[in-house]
UniProtKB/TrEMBL annotation:
UniProt-annotated location(s): Cell inner membrane
Domain of life: Bacteria
Organism expressing this protein natively: Marinobacter halodurans
Membrane topology: Multi-pass membrane protein
Entry similarity comment: Belongs to the binding-protein-dependent transport system permease family. LivHM subfamily.
Name of the protein: Branched-chain amino acid ABC transporter permease
Transmembrane segments annotated in the record for this chain: 20-53, 99-122, 164-183, 190-215, 235-256, 268-297, 309-329
């Protein structure tokens, strides 16, 4: 039982990232009909928003100590971050919680990048074949990846979680399985809860706000909504920006789990496109459900017992693609996709 619970938690952890990125992909495809292969780059940029803010908060003033000296008799250099000089203990807390502060920093940044991407490039490919959309957005992803590589280098840049969230929590003791049976990192649980809040917020926004209702109507029948005098293109541009924000925030909060690097967007992109296809192109609920489902399946596939059963072969890296093949053969529109989508 403890092994099963642990694998479910691992799966929900992975599935949270898959679901958030796939949700953004589906928002774009469902509203604009664009297959955006630059979406993984938005995840990467979100992660580097955390890097940038952490570096800004950690800018230091270097002074010479008046009392301490090195073994060679020179004054010891004292490094003091400016925010600590200005705000004291509050400044130290700001540095410690830089990941959370990065959320506020990333929201306007990702919104501007998303809208600029849609208005500056993608709007010219709305009526072009999906193959053209894939080529141009994939090229954009490579350009953004190389820009990040030139600015920040090729090596991963570790980002620590706040001190209060470092370490693990004994879940086994909390649910009555005994001490030290199910021990899980605190930050991974925080990431899952954060993903749940973002997903619930997006669905609530689309369901209960006038803006969201108009967008859903436009997704179902764009021409009719336009005939009512509503500028649906402007609203769809805003949805592209929202999709960029959702994906960027997924990258922000993932930095303590995976150190930001220039190729992390590509690493997640292909997996999340598979998630979208399995869930159903254009289905928001399908994207989220498939993200968590495939995350859990991948987690269980990594168990030593599964590897032993398969005579030493490991399938955790291919299980998602195997599921996708089965889904495409038996139900081409995906688990929750609308009839006629991706079936011809």
């Amino acid at each position: 039982m403890d092994a099963i619970i642990l694998q479910i938690l691992n799966g929900l952890d992975k599935g949270s990232a898959y679901a958030l990125i796939a949700l953004g992909l589906t928002l774009i495809f469902g509203t604009l009909g664009v297959v955006n292969f630059a979406h993984g780059a938005l995840f990467m940029i979100g992660a580097f928003c955390t890097v940038i803010l952490n570096k800004l908060l950690s800018l230091e003033m270097v002074t010479k100590s008046a009392t301490e000296t090195t073994p060679w008799g020179t004054p010891v250099e004292v490094h003091t971050p400016y925010v600590v000089m200005w705000f004291g203990k509050v400044g130290e807390t700001m540095i410690d919680y830089s990941v959370f502060w990065s959320i506020l920093f990333a929201i306007p940044v990702m919104l501007i990048i998303g809208i600029a991407m849609e208005r500056g490039l993608i709007k010219f490919f709305y009526k072009r074949p999906h193959a053209d959309q894939i080529l141009v957005t994939f090229g954009l992803a490579i350009v953004l990846q190389e820009i990040i590589k030139q600015i920040f280098g090729a090596n991963p840049i570790p980002q620590p979680a706040p001190d209060a969230f470092v370490g693990s929590i004994d879940i086994g003791a909390l649910i009555g399985l005994g001490a030290n049976t199910v021990v899980y990192p605190i930050w991974r649980l925080v990431y899952f809860l954060f993903a749940a809040v973002i997903i619930a917020g997006v669905f609530a926004f689309l369901r209960f706000t006038t803006f969201g209702m108009v967008v859903r109507a436009g997704m179902a029948d764009r021409e009719t909504v336009g005939l009512l005098g509503i500028n649906i293109d402007r609203r769809f541009t805003a949805m592209f920006g929202l999709a960029a924000v959702v994906t960027g925030l997924a990258g922000v909060m993932y930095t303590p789990i995976l150190s930001p690097n220039y190729h992390m967007g590509m690493d997640f992109l292909v997996l999340c496109f598979v998630v979208v296809v399995v869930g159903g192109m254009g289905s928001l609920a399908g994207a989220v459900a498939a993200g968590f489902l495939l995350g859990v399946l991948q987690s269980f596939a990594s168990m030593p017992e599964v590897k032993e059963f398969l005579f030493g072969f490991s399938i955790d890296q291919v299980i998602i693609y195997l599921v996708a093949v089965v889904i495409l053969l038996t139900r081409p529109r995906g688990l929750m996709g609308r009839k006629g989508i991706m079936e011809t």
